[in-house]
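Bench log, entry 3. Co-assembly request; chain sequences pasted below exactly as received.
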Amino acid sequence: MSFPRASDSAKLLIIYTGGTIGMVYDDATGVLIPMGFKEIKYHIPEIARLGCEFDMHAFNPPIDSSNMSPDIWIQLAQLIHGHYHNYDGFVILHGSDTMAFTASALSFMFENLSKPVILTGSQLPIGEIRTDAKENIITTMEIAGAKKNGEAMVPEVCIYFDYYLFRGNRTKKNNTEKFDAFYSLNFPPLAEAGIDIQYNDANIIKPAAPSFSINTKLNTDIAVLKLFPGIAINTVEAVLHTPRLKAVIMETFGNGNAITAPWFINCLRKVIDDGIIVLDRTQCDGGSVELGRYETSAYLKAIGVTNGNDMTFEAAVTKLMWLLGQGYPVEKTRILLETPLRGELTEK
Ligand code: ASP
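Structure output for the full assembly:
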């Protein structure tokens, strides 16, 4: 389905958090440092001609997205909540490095979102002649303002980059150099920009109820155990005995397979019996965990490992933080981890 333009009456809030998109080279040191939003408007005068109204909110100072944190996700959620009724859509200019984490975190904190919240950035700073910032910002604004029968075309938290719109919690940065820096291997794009913008309407989630709200309670007591051949018991124990640990994401091989040595199984069984959640997520970016398909994962199911299904790492981290923040009992948290809440996993 294609709808050419942002609605003329659309009003957008553009939130500039920082990232390469607004960076310039520092004359003294030669490293990239953030510049202000004034310069962005100067470099893309076309945004004034898009036909939709917009206001801007710039972080002061802008930050490299490596310094993003749950506190800032909460600030972003509150900012959007506070301005929700004043705008038709929200554009977040963000560094690409942790953009997928921010998009995923926001998707869980928002309930019944009925307006687009679209993150974008760029690989080259806005002042560079070959910058990808221009296209990314202009098309993001078009999509954020696009409506059909008065309703937003894409009422989801998304990432737009290099002609594709992806569901944010399905997206991963996979390339540090190419303009197509993101992919979503387990879910199709929500839109593709060519001469027209083609929307994948059948895959776009519509709000279940009219009342938008935010729930920003997060708990960061999680850790990651990435398996590799030769991983030592002291490494595994160090991660599993992290103080205050409530859940660990275990990054496994292939379909969710892990080491079957008795010492490893015992380490896992012990922490699970102590009420710590072990979430199995495959190290592969495409495909899914299938506990029990191989002998090397059948025992994981038996000892109470939770199935991470086809969630991205970014979705797994932020979903865990959000679910733990709700203070649910362990069993309910485990069930919700395996249940799609915001389209972040494919139910089997
Ligand atoms: N380091 C930058 C950041 O994530 C890279 C980028 O913007 O793409 O903030």
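DSSP finds nine helices and 20 strands in the chain. Residues 18-20, 64-66, 95-97, 121 surround aspartic acid (CB under 6 Å).
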